[in-house]
Structure formats: C-alpha cells, structure tokens
Amino acid sequence: MDESGQPVAGATISLKGSSVGTNADEKGHFAITVPSNGILVVTSVNFERQELPVNNRETLEVKLLPLAKIEGEVIVVGYGTQRKEAVTGSVASINGDKMREVPAPNISQALQGRLPGVEMAQTSSKPGAAMQIRIRGTRSLTTDNDLYRNDPLIVLDGIPFPGNIGDINPNDIKSVEVLKDASATAIYGSRGANGVILITTNRGQKGAKPRISYNGYYGIQKLFAKVPMMNGPEFAALRKASGRYTTQPGGDESDSTNTDWQNLFYKDGAVTSHDLNISGGAEKGSYNFGVGYYQNQAVIPTQQYRRYSMRGSLDQEVGKYVRIGFTTNNNYNLTQGSQVGLYGVLSMSPIANPYNADGSLKRIIKMPLDDQWVLTRSVVDKLKDQWLSETRGYATYNSVYGEVKIPWVEGLKYRTNLGLDFIQSNDGNYTGQGIGSSNPLTVSTAGTGNSHTYHWVVENLLNYDRTFAHKHTLNVVALYSAEQNKYSRSSMSAKDLPADAFQFYNLGQAVGEKTIDPNNQDYQLTGLMSWMGRAMYTYDNRYMLSATVRSDASSRLAPGHQWHTYPAISAGWNIANESFMKGITPINSLKLRVGYGQTSNQAVAPYATLGRLTVRPYNFGDNYAVGTYVSQLPNASLGWEYSVTWNYGLDFSLFNNRLSGTIEYYKTNTKDILLPLSLPGTSGVPGITSNIGETQNKGIELTLNGSILKDHNGWNWDAGINFYANRNKLVSLASGQTRDEGNAWFIGHNIDALYDYEKVGLWQDKDQYLNVLEGPAGKVGMIKAKYTGDHNPDGSPVRAIGPDDRQVIDVDPDFQGGFNTRVSYKGFDLGVVGIFKSGGVLVSTLYGPAGYLNMMTGRRGNIKVDYWTPDNTGAKYPNPAGPLSGDNPKYASTLGYFDASYVKIRTISLGYNFNEKLLRSSAVKMRMYFTVQNPFVLFSPFHKESGMDPETNSYGNENVATGGFQKRILTVGFNTPATRNYVLGVNLSL
Fold first, then answer.
1. CA-CA distance, 427 to 449, in Å (whole number)?
2. Per-residue model confidence as pLDDT tens digits over 517-543
3. Residues 6+ apart with CB under 8 A from 445
4. What angle do CA 887, 892, 894 make, to 5 degrees?
C-alpha cells in the first residue's frame, strides 16, 4: 500500500538473489514462497525500492514511499508520467503550491524567474495581461504580425491548448512541467518546436473523503513610482534654456504654477481572488469541482479586469478493465478601460493651471503649439457611459477520455482523448462627442468586433508498460492524432452616433461614415495530422534510453511538402547507482544525460502557399470602382522550418539530499525559416512567403536547491536559485544577404537587435572636429555620436557623421534567473521570491524620441533629465538649445538605451499555520499570510535614474507618440504603471 493506505496494484515482489517473484493484485495482495530467512525486494513505478527481511513471518504489510519524498518527484513528460530520476530529456518542473507563492492572476506571472531557461517578459502591464514566454531563446524570425511563432505549445491536461494562458486559473494547477530540448518535445512534433508547457490541474483521489477548500486574498495596489516628469520650476528652467518657446502672459501657463498631473490622475488599485473547491472519491472513482473569481482594478481610472472560472473533473473505473473521465475548464472575463492611457497626462505642461477661477476644471489648456484636453480621474469617472472600451471573453476547454486495459496482454492499454474547445471574444468601444479632443464638436466614434475559435483534437494512444526480471522496464507509446482549428473575426466602425445611449451596440444608426476594413476581417481553417512512436527503456535503474519518431502533416504548407518526419533520442546514466559509487556517501544521486532531436515549426499564416488578391477602390474618371491586385505570390514548395538540438545535462543530489541541482548545456540550429521575402518594387508584388535563413541558440543552465536547516530545533530553511545564459544569433538570410536593415536583422548578431548611432558623450568646448563631423549646425553640448569613418593623415575625419556610422546593438542579456528562500518556525513561515538580469539593453520610449516626452524644447511636459548647460557640462543629456532632428534633439534615439541589469524582489510573504498549535486537533486546516509584491529593485541603472520598475511593459511599436521600434523589441513605455501590492490571504480546508 501507499502512504494513504491505498493498494499499489502491480507492485513487483521478488526474493533477493533469486529469480523467484510475483506481482501484487488490484487490491495490493500477493503470495510468495520464500525461506524464513529470506529478504523480499518490493518495487513499483513511482515508489521507492524496499528490502524487507522475512524473519519467519507468514504475513507482511508493506508500505511504499513515493519517490517524490525520497529522490525526486514523478513528473509529467507528455502522454504519461516518469520518475524524475529516469528522465533523459531536459524537463523543468514546479508544483502548484510553490507556484502560488506568488499571488498572480495567471500562470505566466506566477512562474516568472522560477524555471531555468524559461523567460517571462511583460508585453503589457494592463490588468489581466499575460506575459511573453520564450523557452531557451528566440528561434524564428518574426514580423510584426506573427510574434506568436516563437511561443511554446501549452498542453492542458493532455490536450493542446488553443487559448490564452490567462484563461487558466492558477489555483486549479497541480503542477507545471516545461519540456525544453528536442528529445523531450519531439513527442509533440511541430507543435513543440519552441518548447512545451504541460499544465496538470487538480483531480480527486480514489477512496478519499470529501474535502472542501477555500483560497482567497485581497490586496491594495499602490503606485510603484510615478514617471519622473519635471515639476513647474524645472520645466520653466528647461524652456528658458531651450529658448524656443515662451510662456504667454494671461494664458493657461505661468512660470509660478506647479501642477502635478499624475497626482490628479492616479487612484489606488485593488486586487482580489476567491476560489472554492470540493474533491473526493469512491472505491473506483474520484471527482474535483471548483469555482473562482478574480478582479483587478488598476491605478489608472476605468482600467479593470475580471475573471469568473468554473472547473470540474471526474474519473471512474468501469469493471476491471475500463476507465473513463472528463475535464472541463470554463471562464468568462471582462476587460475594461484600455482606451485610457498615460500620454495625455504626462505630456501636459506642469506650469499650466487646470482650474478655472471658480475652482472647476478647464476643458482644455493651451500650450505653445498644442491645445490639450484636460485628463484627470474626476473627468474619467464622469464619462463612464460616454467613453468606454470593453472586451468580453468566454472560453470553454473540455476533454473526454476512455481507457481500456487489454486483458490478455499484461501492461498494454488503449486510450482515446477527445478535446473540444470554444473561444469567443466580443469587443466594443465608444468615444462621445468632443471627448479627448481640443474641439468640443468632434463627432463621436464607435467600433465593435467579434471573434470565434472552434478547436477539436482526437488522439488514439496505445501504451505498453512492463517490468521484466525486476531490472528491465519498458514503456512504449504509439499515437495517431488529428486536429482542426477554425477561426473567424469581423469588425466595423462608425462615426457620429445619434446619442450616447447607442454606444457601440447599433452602429447602423450612425449618421456619419461607417467602415468595414477588409484587413480587419479574417477566416482561417487549419488542420494537423500526426503519427508518433516513443520507447523508453531502463535497465536496473542505471541505464536509460528514450527514442521518439514523429511525423506531422500540416494544411498550412504546400502539397508535397506537408509531411515531415523527425527523430529524437536521449540517454541517461545513473552513475550513483553503480557499485563503484556505493562507498561515496556524500553523493546520493548523480545522473548524466545526453539528447539529440529534431523538431519542426509550421507557424506560418494559413494560405501562405497560395496567391492572394487584395481589393482596392479607385476612381476612373467620374466613376468609383473597385479592383483587385496581386498582393502575394503563391509558393508551391513552401515546407517546414525545423530545428536540430543537442542537449547535455548533469543531475545531482548531495549530502543526504540536502543539496540538489542540474547543469545543462544546449545548442539549437533552426533552418529553412518561414518568413515573408520582400521582392523588388518592379515585380509589382510586395513579397512571397519562403523558407529562408538560419538562426542559432546555445546556452547553459544551472539550478541549485538546498535544505540549509532541516527541523533544527523547530527551524527549517530552504533556498533555491536558477541561472541561465542564452547566446542567440542570426546565421544566414535569403540570397546570401548579410543584413536586412529594414527588419534590423544582421548576420552574427541577436535576432532582437537595434540599428542606431552610438552615443559616446556630449560635445564640449575642448573637443576637436565638431564643425567637421556635425557641420555648421554643430553646437557644444549636443550628443556626440561615434564616428566610424576614415581619417586624414593629420587625424581629422574625412567626412561628417552620417547613416554609415550606425551600429548594430545586441539587446539580449548576458545572463538572468531567479531565486527563492523560505524559513519556517513553529507554524510561522517567511518566503522571498526574486528575479535578476545582467547586461543587455533596456529600451525606454519615455526617454527616446518616439515617446515625445523628452523633446527638451519646452513644447510639452518633459521627463526629468540632467541636461547640459554652460554651468553643467558633465550632464548626461544634451543642450536643450542644440540642433534638432524633427521635434527632438539630434541623435535623440540614443537617449532611450539603458543597461538592462537589475535584481528585483517579487514577493516577501509572511504566513502562519494555525494547525501547528491553535487548531492542532481540528479537522479544519487554516493558514493566513501577508504578502508584499514588488517591494524594491536593486542594481538597476534605469531604476537608479528614474525610480521606475525596470521590467518592460510594451511592444516596441506601442505606447509611443510617433515612430517606434520593431514590435518584437520590448520597451518601457507609458503603459499602465507598475504597482507595489499589499495582499492579505487565507487558505482553508476541511
């Protein structure tokens, strides 16, 4: 039996030193004839091996301990589970309890910094936003429309997950496993090209009594830091130093005014979560059902996210050979207020007075070149029905399975999985007359959109799992699956609604223009068919071998190129189990792993193999007509993008399992990359989708977990750290190109790279060649860009600085990771979770020209910077009176680049377990905790200068006033600001 008294069916019992043996029946009973002084050896998958002397006993009760408590847990590896000590691929795992040490709305935020080689980066800081996930770097080149191409596959309870990871309630999670190398991910084929995240939700236990649990928390969100904008006196001094604009007497501005627009705008936010669950089981079945509610009100007025979730699972044995069950995960979410942003607040002049003489707010304020609409929280609160943006999402993810044991072949099972998913999104926006505009007569606008996803998958699995002669363990899986995804989207917009009451619900009544943009309508139908075989063999828990072959066919690719077959193989050696290691007591386990595999990627837009015609209206004389033109050429040879990976790993456990860890090295080459290829303008067609280019990722990963104190006078102290460094580069492009400046792709550099001038300081009086390098417009105090051209014999430069002096700037960090520690004493526990990053480039559009918040001319509100003046020549930022490029200082783009290094404490949590003393004998289990999230940041140059959170919060082309970067370059922009959260929570069960 196991620890809970449940029978361990199929356990192997043998007489040590002989071939005599038997197996336990379904009730865990066995009978065996052995000498009275013999020793029984009892083994079972997922349990610790035991040796028990008979000692003349006629009956013997054996209690097996799970390996999770001895040498490592049992983890999910895809279409099954495996003891961690037998895994040969690269798999990182975390259980749900540890993940929930960080109270978070979704799994991606909870996992940040917890798993080596798994990078979670913020693309948005709005309520409900999930994070961008990259496993061992970026493999594929992407344009702004297909960033999903580098996303990992998410598998929820065994079924590929088509939805948003934010739809999954973190409180429902039992464990998360991340498959990182090709030998581990090949079992999922093309879907696993960028890694696989396996999410297993909670289920009931057979024979367990009904158990009710409640988990809830409530928290206050305070602004982490305001954007450091200049106050009134600082702004007045900047305007004077610039000399370009003057404050007009009698206007809205006055040098004696000091308005903090951010104070007038922000409000305290709030976050709350409540989950109620019931689980249990009978002799041959189990169940688990739960409901959840999550809400986040942001510090920006109107921004809010709500999620209602409902989940259930049921497992039931039917007779001796059949098992059936289902899982359903459902959620409804509402996102509001995304139309309200920060730019209008930050760009306001701090020397402008927002109030009329009677104390009421002005509608607009006048600045030198701009009339700006006054935006405060009181204004926003009054416009709830006249200015709104809402997205309503509903999703249901369902799976049903049936499993049959083949009675005449021991260890053979057939299983079928059916996944049925539906996702719906409805969004609408409305802006009433004059709102957000300096003109009160600007007509109202509204828009609405809808999207639907229908997804199904059928998997047929044949599984053979058997142990022979007590030393040979064989597991073989064969799979045939088919999958289909149908997606449709439509939208329209209109102007001049008859009344605010219409909002976006009846655009047909609009008096003004009604628009249906063909580019905002879509229909896609795609399918995938797959065959797979995997065999895992273990000999004497010492030598392990795993081999996988998978073949996929994708409807996205050209006929004749739709099928692709790829192999994977890995091996492991448990060195610590060798006889020559028996005397080395400090080493508890030591395993060497090596793996090789190939995976493919079919992440290309549906119908990319086909030619495409696009509609365009035009005037022909006095007549209005609509014509079509070729916008995409067909490619009858479009095939698979594929990656080849080598992985080497060492797992170890030392000092009576007090210190454990993993060291890994990997190298991945991705070839035949799927990407739109631009064609010359003379072709008349923008481009064609082709297999071009090659990239490489290689890196190292290190994980250490230690039990520093273990029940030492009541004290326990655990700590862990993970560290990883990925080196990413572009190896080749189409037609032998070495660079694609338009997309910022350069051979030998990061896929995510910048192409810009390099700031080497500011020009000073003593510097030579200012007039040569910058011409007559050059001025002391302006940005000094690096010159890369030739020099004359006298050392002078031969030309002025120009486009040829731009540099390729790699943005990836040198290394990054996370750490955690937990101390407990007599019911109290204190935990800390943090993340860190070293090196790389952080891009901030707040400081660069695209944000229009660092123009340094005095035209609009300006971020606080230390700028050059004749009395402050050692400043970092240029002379406000220096030459401009457009509205910004020349080379202003160089001002937005920072060292991306930081150490950030994500949570500090103090808890108390009432069962330790107050409720020791009670059936009720209770724990309360108080958590501070984002308490502080260390060692960050960006934070040191700005006081702000150094984590990114926007794509490169978002939260900018003009221009911007490639979308894939993540930036710190004027998105919803980061917060410091104070959370009080409770865990109850009975």
1. 5
2. 888 899 999 999 999 999 999 999 899
3. 429, 430, 431, 493, 494, 495
4. 160
